[in-house]
Amino acid sequence: MNLHYLYSAVEFDFSRIPTDSDLVSVATTIGYGWDLLAPFLSIDEGTVEKIKEDYGYSTEKQIFQLLKAWKKKHGGISTFKGLLKSMRECDAVNVDWIMLQKELGFNRGKKSNENLLDIMCT
Predict the structure, then answer these.
(1) pLDDT of residue 1
(2) Cα–Cα distance, 108 to 67 (Å, whole number)
(3) Using alpha carbons only, how large is the chain's radius of gyration in Å?
(4) 95 φ/ψ angles, rounded to the nearest 5 degrees
(5) How far is residue 14 from each of residues 85, 95, 118, measured CA to CA in Å?
């Protein structure tokens, strides 16, 4: 039995800065209302409009660009914990939290779905 697989939730480092690959994974879990997340990420409306204009052909790419803008703006303090907290605070955005857990590889091997923030804040 692969114990690393079972305990990956405990080992996931929520204080680390997400890579672009991580942001792609996060972007795939965000849907309707993605642009309403911008103020929670401290991204201004002008940036959102530019993203919509430049990447209008793909919602997923728009979301990815929003997340990249957040990462660039906040630099060394753009952690998973901060991102996920902002996503949770924005009730208007549709996030598939279970898919997010699977995409990022934490909470594996759990028999029940634990609250993401409970895992993140421990």
Answers:
(1) 34
(2) 24
(3) 15
(4) -120, 130
(5) 11, 18, 12
